[in-house]
């Protein structure tokens, strides 16, 4: 039966098994949907776009398009704040921009809350 199942995307183990709608790897414990493996891009570069659809690149300058509350701070990042020299990353959740926000320091932002300047 394991001959027809894909190997684990995390550790490449061939011992994956079905558990309901998911596939499970007994070697590393990773669980995934078989459809997610079929839809995964084949080493294609990831394209990150801003809130209006412009493609972002490392080193771009972006502008914040809405007030953002900052966890652990009573202040918020205001609309129109310019952030220079962004770096695109695979961040936590859907945070895909690593940057230094003036007055706040280093943090990650979502591309959906910025516009290319």
From TrEMBL:
UniProt cross-references to Gene3D superfamilies, sorted A to Z: 2.20.25.10, SH3 Domains (2.30.30.40)
Pfam families: YjdM, Zn_Ribbon_YjdM
Entry keyword Cell wall biogenesis/degradation: no
Presence of keyword Hydrolase: yes
All copies of domain Protein YjdM C-terminal, residue ranges: 48-117
Superkingdom of source: Bacteria
Keywords: Hydrolase
An example Gene Ontology molecular-function term: hydrolase activity
Domain Protein YjdM N-terminal: 4-33
Family note: Belongs to the YjdM family.
Protein name: Phosphonoacetate hydrolase
Source species of the chain: Demequina mangrovi
Classification of source organism: Bacteria, Bacillati, Actinomycetota, Actinomycetes, Micrococcales
